[in-house]
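Table S2 (text version). Query chain:
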Amino acid sequence: MRDQRRRHGPGGASEINFATDKEPRFFSHDKHRRGVEWYHGSFPRRPGVKIDGSTTYAEAWMDRSATSARRIHEYNPDARIVYCVRSPLARAVSEWQEYGHQLRLGNPSIARIPGMDAYGDLDADLRRMPGFLGTSNYWQRLTPYRERFPDERIHVVFQEDWRRAPQEVLAGLLQFIGVDDAWPCPSADAEVNDRWLKAKPRLLLNLMLRMPGYRRISTMVPDAARPMLRRVLKRRPVDATAVSPDVVAYAWESLHEDIDRFLRWAGRDVGLWGRGAYR
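Corresponding structure-token output:
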């Protein structure tokens, strides 16, 4: 979500200001009760475009997408919305792994979701907990925003395009949010999210986590050694290939009508995420 309250001249903005915490979750969570002054304090106090990268604003859990759309519009009806999407089943599996990681860290906002338990079996959880696949119902998640914001204020970024031409996609995104060409673009293809970081721990790591002083000792491990240690102490990260054929079929039946409608609206081939791509 981009805050466009500050107007810019023909050259656009020269600064991008991200929230100190990349995902403030202000409009989707109880933090909203703290008021807009608290929210404004989450950003650097300097002129420029303000970026709130909270993925929870498009979640099915606890109807957060509808709540967020309403609150964002009340806060700033001129906001611009950037919606990032990927293969629906791959996104659901990634979220399942992320939520398991957050539960292990004791994240209270995840634990508060009724029935949330991402420690279980992947196939069973995708069937049992509708929010995992429901957040991939992209048309449903987008509808509350389209009811409040015109389509020209909604920009969709497809992960497939990002992988193919990251600098081109980034340039289009910067143009959409009103940043001029003078803004120094970082490398768009840099890897900043290690999949192994959120993988399930093995028994040895579980035991180590209970040892007094483990957290302090772990900070002394050289950065160069961390990738190797993660592969020894953690289970291999999961992806959509870990989903059984029966659940792939279940996901397809649950999602494809919604996804086809979304892709048609976005001007994309409805075969982009065909049944085979759900793997």
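Notes on Table S2: The mean pLDDT is 87. The radius of gyration is 20 Å.
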